Structure formats: C-alpha cells, structure tokens
Amino acid sequence: MSTASQVPPAPLANALEGVGTPAQRTRICALSTIGFTLMFAVWLMFGILAIPIRKEFNLTEVQFGWLTAIAILNGSIWRLLFGIATDRFGGRRVFTALILATIVPSYLVSQASSYYELLFYAFLVGLAGNAFSVGIAWNSAWFPRQQQGLALGIFGAGNVGASVTKFIGPFLIATIPVAGYYGGWIPGGWRFVPFLYCVMLAMLAVAMWFGSPKHDHMPGKGRSMAEMLRPLNNVRVWRFSLYYVVVFGAYVALSVWLPKYYVDVYGLPLQSAALLTALFIFPASLLRPLGGWFSDRFGARRVMYWVFGTMTVATFLLSGPSGHIVINVPGRFDADGMTEVMPVTMNVYWFTALVFIVGVGMGVGKAAVYKYIPEYFPRDVGAVGGLVGLLGALGGFFLPPIFAFLLEWTWIPQTTFFVLFLLTAVSFMRLHLTVWRMLHSASPHLETHFETHTS
Questions:
Q1: pTM of the full predicted structure?
Q2: Which residue, among 31, 276, 262, has the nearest Cα to 167 in the 3D structure?
Q3: How far apart are CA 429 and CA 305, in angstroms?
Q4: Counting beta carbons within 10 angstroms of the beta carbon of residue 145, is it exposed (0 to 12), middle (13 to 18) or buried (19 or more)?
Q5: Residues 6 or more apart whose Cβ sits within 8 Å of residue 411
Q6: What is the Cα–Cα distance from 418 to 185, expressed in whole angstroms?
Q7: What are the b/e assignments for 9-39, b being 16+ CB within 10 Å?
Q8: Which of 65, 341, 395, 440 has its Cα between 20 and 30 A from that of 52?
Q9: What SS3 class is residue 336?
C-alpha cells in the first residue's frame, strides 16, 4: 500500500489531529466555557425570578409554567441553524453576535410592566440558550478526536450557569431596594438581576471578540446547505436526540422547576430552595468533564447504560406520592374499623439526595451523548449537534408546562418525577434494543463489544 493511500482526507485529518496550537485551543475552550456559563445563567434566570414575579403579577400555576418555559423555547428552536452557522462562519463571529443580540432583551425584562409583556421579553432573552450549539461546534472544530470528549465535557460544564441566579438572585432580590437607584434607571428587586446580566453580557462580548484567535476553523465553509443537512436523515441522530431530552431537556426543566417544588411542597424560603436546587445543578453540570473522560476511556454506550439505569431507579423512587393506605377491618382498630397503614412520606433530605443522584446521571450522560456525535459525524458536528441540542432543549421547554398541567389536574406534585421516570425508562429500553440488535446481527465476535460504527 502506498504512503499516499494511508493519508486521511483533510477534514478527517483535522478531526484526528486538531487545528491550531494547544494554547489557541485552550483559549477557545476557556472563553467559550465562560461565555456559555453566563449565557446559560441568563437563559434560565426565570427559575428564581418567576417566584417573586408570580406574587407580583398574581400568576396561576399554568401561567407560571409558561413563563419558566418560554425562554427555553427560543433557546431551542434555533440551535440547528446556529450550529450550521458556526461551521460555516466560525465560532468567534457567531458567539460574539449571539451575545450582542441578547443584551437588549435582558434589559427589557427588567422593564416589563405586565405578564404578557414579560412573556414576550422572556422569549427574546431565551436566544441565549443557543450558545450551546455554537460552543459545541466551535470546540469540535479545533480539538483532535481523542480529546473531544474531555473538551466538550469542560465546555458543557457551563451548564453550571443555571446555578448562578440561584446563588445571587435571592440575595439581590432581598437587598436591592425595589425602587432601585438613580431614579429607577437602575431597577431594584427581582428586576435588578436581568439588568446586571445585560451589563455582564456587554463585557463578555468584548472579551470574546478580542480574546479569541482571529483565525478560525470553519469545517462547513464552501459546503452546500443540502450537504450539511444530509446526516439528519440518519435515524441514529434522532436516537441521540431522545437520549439528550432525558439528560439535558429534563435537566433544564428541573433547574427552573425545583425552586418552586421546594417552596410549595416543603415550605422552604426562596433562598433555601435555591441553594438546594444548586445541589442538583452542580453535579449535573460540573461532572460533565468527567463524563467526557469516561466516554473517551470506556465508550459512550457503556456510560449511557449506567446513566439510564441509575436515573430510572432514582426517578421511580421520587415519583411515589406522599400518603398512606386506609384499610377497613370491622370490629378492630377504632370505632369504625378504619386504620391507616404503610405511610409513605419522603422528607426533604431523602428527596435532595435522590435529586442529587439524578443530577450526577445527567451530568455524566450529557457528555456521553455528545461524545457520540464527532465519533459518527466528524464533519457535521454543527448540524448534528445543533439538531440534537434543539430537540433536547425542546424537551426542556415542553416539560414545565406538562408538570404544571399534571399538578393542576391531579394536585400530586410527584407527578413531575413520574413523567421523568417514563421518559428515562423508554430511552433506556431504546438503548438496550439497539445494543441487542447489534449483538444479534453480528454475533458472536461482537458479543462483548459496545462500541461499533455499525449501530
């Protein structure tokens, strides 16, 4: 075989070896992670802000659910386009433009005077959620294949931005006067938080533009849109999207829903509810680099088995409603023969521990899903990663209203976790069915193998 025949095509060689210097790749990973952290905080700020907003605007359960979900919608529907744009025009340009486009809506949220006005501004500020697709495509274009799991895991740890408002929000809401400062030019109360974010976004845009390498890698440059979209016909892409609904869409939904759950079910003050929610967000975000390392070392499919197995058990336990069984034995117990047996009540400590376990599974699982993508689609990370991110984030949009409707219908708050249990169990069965078909079509030599490009 000639030497020339052993040289991979240029796009594949870039995927294997990476582009640029290690210092440039480190800068891109650091800036994109910081940027994603802030943009994620902006995207999910209504998880905390919606609680004082509910009181100010006298919202119903369903109105509350839509307010927490509407920003998630706009941070979902454009992910495919932003991923493709990043591959064609470069992450530096697209990320900076996205940050600039989020500044004005963030300020407008602080000025809203009615529920529907607030709903509209919340939708606009949700554009920040598309930063994920940009960062995934940008980092994938620069890092070699053997480092992509870890690099994408580090970037994805920016999900911890969901906890930023949980930490600073209650304190700022309680300490900044409602009237604000300078005649209200700087708003107070809950309105100060989006105002602060718009200032931080302006600083981030400057850092992103001047701090990242001027030369960018654009794997989609010169390719037609039809060519870039062609991988989306592959059923594997849609299976990855289902997995991502479980590990990311449900994460987004719980990030905005848990503070309310703690307040309503356990009667905790907002600050305590926010801190306990952060105990879910931290592992679901900061363990993403570990999930990437596990996926590099053991393979994404093995990791997903452990993730779905653990989450199925935990969400099943969380879905049990508090209550007891009442039995009637005439002539026994009290005067009417009625007694209560088998009381089922989950205190806040056990609840938090199980939610923490769910967060661990989500943190590891998010990295594993995105390890799949550059493995199977090295030239189309923007398009494939954008679609997977889009559908996963849409899960985060639809779940809060579903939680709200079920709560209003049943008055059982644990229905939240029953929905997540069903979603996780279905995904687990789909994963296992895929592996079962793979092994039985290629037995016996694949019987002990999980990783193959034929499934």
A1: 0.71
A2: 276
A3: 10
A4: middle
A5: none
A6: 45
A7: eeeeebbeebbbeeebbebbbebbbbbbbbb
A8: 395
A9: coil
146 close to 296: Cβ distance less than 8 angstroms: yes
- Flag whether 326 is in a domain: yes
Domain harbouring 220, CATH code: 1.20.1250.20
In a domain, 4, yes or no: no
The strand pairing partners of 326, in sequence order, are 340
Across 65-101, b (16+ Cβ under 10 Å) vs e yields bbbbbbbbbbbbbbbbebbbbbbbebbbbbbbbbbeb
Residue type, 339: T
Please give the structure tokens belonging to residue 113.
């005077």
What six digits make up the tokens of 71? 């920003």
pLDDT (0 to 100) of residue 116:
93
Q: Please report which helix (H) or strand (E) contains residue 330, including its range.
A: none
Tens of pLDDT, residue by residue over 229-270, are 777 787 888 888 889 999 989 988 898 889 889 998 999 998
Task: Using only the alpha carbons of the chain, give its radius of gyration.
Answer: 23
Q: Which helix (H) or strand (E) holds 340?
A: strand 338-344
- pLDDT greater than 80 at residue 410: yes
Rounded-to-integer distance, Cα 247 and Cα 188, Å: 35
Write the CB contacts of 45 (distance below 8 Å, at least 6 apart in sequence).
165, 169, 193, 194, 197
Residue 11 lies in a domain: no
Mean pLDDT for the chain? 83
- Residue 206: which domain range? 20-442
Mean pLDDT of 185-213: 93
For residue 291, tell me if it sits in a domain.
yes
Which has the minimum average pLDDT: 184-198, 240-254, 297-311, 319-333?
A: 319-333
Task: Place 454 in a pLDDT band, splitting at 50, 70 and 90.
Answer: very low
| pLDDT of residue 291 exceeding 70 | yes
Band of residue 12 on the pLDDT scale cut at 50, 70, 90 = very low
* DSSP secondary structure letter of residue 259: H
